TrEMBL record:
Keywords: Glycoprotein, Secreted, Signal
Protein name: CREG1 protein
Subcellular location(s) of the protein: Secreted
CREG-like beta-barrel domain segment(s): 1-166
Taxonomic superkingdom: Eukaryota
Keyword Glycoprotein: yes
Family to which this protein belongs: Belongs to the CREG family.
GO cellular component terms given for this protein: cytoplasm; endomembrane system; extracellular space
Pfam annotation, one family: CREG_beta-barrel
Main location: secreted
Classification via SUPFAM superfamilies: FMN-binding split barrel
Length: 169
């Protein structure tokens, strides 16, 4: 019944997601390409999530190269990565093992948002701080334009970004 809240809850409780791009790589050009990325919308804990999926990226990564050509992407996060679905014996494809599909674009964060992105990501993924500096890592965010929630049988629920950002998980 509260699809926007469910979307916020699932994103905040997930540490990674599948990011799909349109490939710019030779042999795959124009085809869908999905890859796993660590993400965070804020430090762990209740009411600490911003709802913005932050990412730590390098131009050396194949999906980032795709995004440089076309920044449009989709991002899927699922409670299957948490203990919830295993505890209830839900298969990852079972709608009761909720998953959220975001569509939008990936963009570098500006200097004023970099501190928030760094805190969000490094609080959940502390090893990121020690990744090779010569890889030119940067903070990015997923700009959400569309949201689909699958958390029960009967089909997807559509949530607007305005509804999504107006609730707390």
């Amino acid at each position: 019944e509260e699809a926007a809240r469910m979307a916020r809850f699932v994103l905040h409780n997930c540490d990674w997601g599948a990011l799909a791009t349109l490939s710019a790589q030779e042999g795959l050009r124009g085809r869908p390409f999905a890859n796993v990325f660590s993400l965070s919308d804020g430090p762990p804990g209740p009411l600490s999530g911003s709802g913005v999926p932050y990412l730590y990226l390098t131009d050396m990564e194949i999906s980032v190269q795709d995004l440089e050509i076309n920044s449009n992407a989709s991002l899927t996060v699922s409670l299957a990565q948490t203990p919830y679905c295993k505890k209830h014996r839900y298969d990852p494809q079972n709608p009761l093992c909720a998953h959220i599909i975001f569509c939008g674009s990936v963009v570098k964060v500006n200097d004023s948002e970099a501190g928030m992105a760094k805190k969000a990501l490094f609080s959940r993924h502390p090893e990121m701080e020690s990744w090779p500096k010569d890889h030119n890592w940067f903070f990015a965010k997923f700009n959400i334009t569309n949201i689909w929630v699958l958390d029960y049988f009967g089909g997807l629920k559509i949530v607007t970004p305005e509804e999504y950002y107006s609730v707390k998980p």
